[in-house]
Specification:
The protein is an alpha/beta fold. The chain has nine helices and 13 strands. It folds into two domains: about 120 residues, Rossmann fold (3-Layer(aba) Sandwich), CATH 3.40.50; about 110 residues, Arc Repressor Mutant, subunit A (Orthogonal Bundle), CATH 1.10.10.
């Protein structure tokens, strides 16, 4: 089946029966699928053909899926969905902290799988072309500099790193409305909050580790208990 690259999904799963079920479900809804039974095979393929989304099992024969997550997230900006038999809360939290967009436990309903795949892919779709917005927008705050489009974040001491898509979208939402309380729904753009559970809190935690001197006592991204989050800084745009 030939599809656009953004609709190509990599399934990293060593259980043939489960891989076949996932593949049949995805193909039924028009997605292209490539299968990998080991982490090493998947990493080799990424060098030539990154997907729009990866469905990753954690219990691979050659490495733990948790080892793959930070490696992939540091180098690529595509969706990551964990589908695993591990139901432990620690694994779920750790997977999201390491960069996964969502987490499903086996056994699962095929319809739920498709709903979560669609949700993740929507978040990675580029914004519609807007000639008036062709110029790169830059936000400056508390000595930091963030460039939209490239997702480049530069610290006050001049170090630059590229944020993953999920973190960049969250930071942009905060910068667009500084000194306002934003709910989790607003920070996700109103998209599938229930399906994402409280993963927004984990993304906030990752951003704090980048921006805050002391993430435990955050000064920039403040928690407003029972309401959401507030970005406490002046922001200038150019």
């Amino acid at each position: 089946m030939t599809t656009k690259s953004k609709d190509l999904i990599h399934v990293v799963e060593d259980d043939l029966a489960i891989a076949r079920l996932i593949g049949q479900t995805l193909e039924k809804f028009g997605y292209g699928v490539e299968f990998f039974s080991t982490g090493a095979e998947f990493l080799r393929r990424l060098k030539s053909a990154p997907p729009g989304l990866c469905i990753l099992d954690l219990g691979l024969p050659d490495m733990d899926g948790m080892e793959l997550l930070p490696h992939v997230r540091a180098r690529h900006a595509f969706g990551l969905l964990i589908v695993t038999g591990r139901s432990d809360t620690h694994d779920r939290v750790l997977g999201l902290e390491l960069g996964a967009d969502d987490y499903m436990v086996k056994p699962f309903e095929p319809r739920e799988l498709i709903a979560r795949v669609r949700s993740i892919l929507r978040r990675y779709q580029p914004a519609p072309a807007n000639p008036a917005a062709d110029a790169v927008r830059v936000a400056e705050f508390a000595g930091w500099r963030f460039e939209l489009g490239s997702n480049a974040l530069t610290s006050p001491d001049g170090r630059t790193e590229t944020l993953g898509m999920a973190e960049a979208q969250l930071l942009c939402a905060l910068l667009e409305r500084p000194n306002q309380i934003l709910t989790r729904d607003q920070l996700l753009g109103g998209r599938d909050v229930a399906a994402l559970d409280r993963s927004i809190d984990l993304r906030v935690s990752r951003l704090r580790k980048r921006l805050e001197e002391n993430p435990v006592h955050a000064r920039l991204i403040k928690t407003v208990y029972g309401a959401g989050y507030l970005f406490s800084a002046s922001v200038s745009w150019s």
